[in-house]
Amino acid sequence: MNVKQTIPKHLRFTVEDFNNRFPDDAACLDELMRLRFPNGISYCEKCEKDRKRYRIEGRPVYSCGYCGTQVSPMAGTIFEKSTTSLRLWFYAMYLMASTRCGISAKQIQRETGVTYKTAWRMFKQIRSLLSEPDLQLEGLSVEIDEAYIGGKNKNKHRSKIRDMRGRDADAKVPVLGMVERGGRVVARVTPSVKAETVYPIIREHVLPESVVFTDDYCVYDRLTESTPYTHRRIRHSEKVYVMGDVHTQTIEGFWSLVKRGLTGVYHNVGKHYLQTYLDEYSFRYNRRHKGNLIFNDVFEKVSEKAVARPSSKDRQMQPE
Predict the structure, then answer these.
(1) What is the C-alpha to C-alpha distance for residues 310 and 314, in angstroms, rounded to an integer?
(2) pTM of the model
C-alpha cells in the first residue's frame, strides 16, 4: 500500500536532514554563529569596529582576527552557561517544532539520556522563545471565544477547591482566544472573562473595522454597541452552531487541539506556566503551513531574543 506523504517535499525536514545538518556540537556552534553574526563578522570592543571572527579549536568561542578578543555565539541565549550538548538543545527544538500536539520532557529524557530536570529546563527555556506578545491580527474576519483550562473540583483535594460560582464553577483558568479565519491565532490567560478584562485584549490584537464572530455569551454584548467592529454572533445557547458564515468553529478547533495536547501529553500544567504552553501551541498553529520547516523559525528566535551584554563603555558609564 502506497501511502501518500502529507507534507510537500519542499516543506520536509526529516530526522535524517537534521542529522546531516547538525552532525555534532561543532556544526551546531557554527550554525549559531552564522545566525547571530552573518559572515562571521561582529563588533569588536577592543578594535572598536566590525571584525572577522575565527573559530578557536576545542573551545566554543570565536576570536577577533586582529586583536584576539573572543566572543561566544551562545552568550545571551538560552544556551549560555549550559553544560548540556548544544546538539541536544537543537534536537529538543526540532522535536518541539515538528510535533503537532507537543512533546513531554519525559520523552526527551528517554530519547537523549539527560535527566528529567535537565529536559524540563530545556523545554521551559525553548518555550520562552515562542511568545509573540505584539502579534496583530490583520484578517478581516476574526473569531473570538473564551475557554477554561484545568481540572474539575471533584477530582481535586479539598484544600485546592475554591469557592467559585457560575462559569468558573470548576476552578479552571480562563483563557481568551482570537483567530483570523485561515490565519493566525492569539491566546491569552486572563484573570477573568469580564468585560473590563476582555475588551482591552481585543482592542490590542484585533484591528478596527474587522468583522468579529462570537457566541452569545453576554460579555460580548458591548461589541454590538459602541465599538469599531462589526459584530456577528451565533446562538450556542439555542444549539445553533453554524449559520452560513457565522460560526466560531475555527477558534474552537484550536481549543480542541490545545486541550487534547495538554491532557494527553503534559497531563497537568500549573496556572503560572499555562501562558508559555499556549504560546507554544499558538506558535506552531501560526506556522502550520510550513511543515517541518517550523524548526527554522524556532532557531531564528534564539538570535531575536538573545540578551545583549553591555559594552565596556556602557559599564564604565554606570554609576557606582
Answers:
(1) 6
(2) 0.85
Instruction: State how beta strands 211-214 and 41-44 pair.
Output: unpaired
Residue in the structure block whose three cell numbers are 551546531: 28
What is the set of domains in the chain, with CATH numbers? 9-37+73-131 (no CATH), 141-285 (3.30.420.10)
* Cell numbers given for 112: 537523549
* CB < 8 Å & 24+ apart, contacts of 16-21: 18/90, 18/91, 18/94, 18/295
Q: What is the mean pLDDT of residues 134-153?
A: 85
Contacts of 155 (CB under 8 A, 6+ apart): none
Is the predicted pLDDT of residue 38 greater than 60, yes or no?
yes
DSSP assignment of 284-315, as one string? HHTTGGGGGGHHHHHHHHHHHTPPPPPPHHHH
Q: What value does the mean pLDDT take over residues 218-234?
A: 82
- The secondary structure of 107-143 as a DSSP string is HHHHHH---HHHHHHHHHHHHTT---TT--B--SEEE
- The letter for the amino acid at 204 is E
Residue located via cell numbers 520523552: 107
* Half-sphere exposure at residue 169, Cβ-oriented, CA atoms within 13 angstroms: 3
217-237: b or e for each residue (b if 16 or more CB lie within 10 Å)? bebbeebeeebebebbbbebe
**Backbone torsion region of residue 244, taken as left when φ is above 0, otherwise alpha when ψ lies between -120 and 50, otherwise beta:** left
Cβ atoms of residues 129 and 284 within 8 Å: no
CB of 61 within 8 A of CB of 70?
Answer: yes
**pLDDT at site 160:** 57
Whole-angstrom distance, CA of residue 257 vs CA of residue 270: 18
Q: Where are the alpha helices (DSSP H) in the chain?
A: 15-21, 25-36, 86-98, 105-112, 116-127, 195-205, 222-225, 249-261, 271-285, 294-304, 312-317
Residue 123 C-alpha cell reads as: 523545554
Q: What is the mean pLDDT of residues 106-127?
A: 92
User: What grid cell was written down for 39?
Assistant: 559572515
